[in-house]
């Protein structure tokens, strides 16, 4: 009514111009959040990234080559409760455009080829079934065989209960592959994002030579609510946040997303330096031989 009284027409705001921060609940300019790699400019809340977005902000443009995309989960237990596992898989694939909860492959990182895996929480909570464990294992074996640094971005609710013991067996399988990678002198960097929990946290997420995390990421085995209800104890402030784990010696660093690329570069250059004859070629030089 007020708009009519003053003789003005109300203009519709373009959709997607503003978003609500899940941390401070402020309305923030969408473009500004994007420029900060999906981080709130007011409170530094780190929005979750999809696997595609993570690859985009990590690797040299257009350099990602996917491997093992054909490895997907089946339904070995014919799981039906509360709804069929087949339906959950089909819905996740349709909604995300992904075949599974982890994307694996190689790409260039500052001109240097690396092996990389990125978990996507949108796909059944980033849970680890037999396909996820197989893809992480194959990626690790590829990194070992080709002497590549390995980076895995973790985001998971844990083992996938719809596959029973088959999902739990992936903890040992991935750990064994990483042990062989380490014995061969390979570098493995684990980056824990929100959330990293349960079977993934209890296996390859915490087996990195260097373990990094994004600010305020939830990291642990069981969630804090489950622990509190089970043990009936008051938990410390900030329990199972990245900062809490860093303070108690379980992480090497908590790194803001905007600084992560440079941080990873320093780690790789220091712990897995290339010999002088194998230095990466600048993109412009490579494009004009």
Describe the structure.
With 289 residues, the chain is of the alpha/beta class. The protein has two domains: 1-47, no CATH class; 48-272 and 282-287, 2-enoyl-CoA Hydratase, Chain A, domain 1. The chain has eleven helices and ten strands. The protein has helices at residues 2-5, 30-35, 51-58, 85-96, 130-145, 165-183, 198-201, 224-231, 242-247, 257-271, 283-287, and strands spanning 18-20, 27-29, 65-66, 102-109, 112-119, 150-156, 188-197, 210-213, 219-220, 253-254. The strands form two sheets. Strands 3, 4, 5, 6, 7, 8, 9 and 10 form an eight-stranded mixed β-sheet that branches. The chain has a two-stranded antiparallel ribbon with strand order 1-2. β4 (102-109) and β5 (112-119) form a beta hairpin. The radius of gyration is 21 Å and the shape is globular.
Biggest pleated-sheet summary: 8 strands, mixed
Task: State the CATH architecture of the largest domain.
Answer: Alpha-Beta Complex
Q: CA-to-CA gap between the ends?
A: 68 Å
CATH topology of the largest domain: 2-enoyl-CoA Hydratase, Chain A, domain 1
Tally of domains: 2
**Uncertain residue ranges:** 1-8
Return the structural class.
alpha/beta
The number of distinct helices, counting runs of at least 4 residues, comes to 11
Q: Provide the gyration radius in Å.
A: 21 Å
Average pLDDT score: 89
Provide the β-strand percentage band.
15-25%
What is the 3D form? globular
N-to-C order of helices and strands: HEEHHEHEEHEHEHEEHHEHH
Task: Kindly report the name of the CATH homologous superfamily of the largest domain.
Answer: 2-enoyl-CoA Hydratase, Chain A, domain 1
CATH class type of the largest domain: Alpha Beta
Share of helical residues = 25-40%
Number of strands: 10
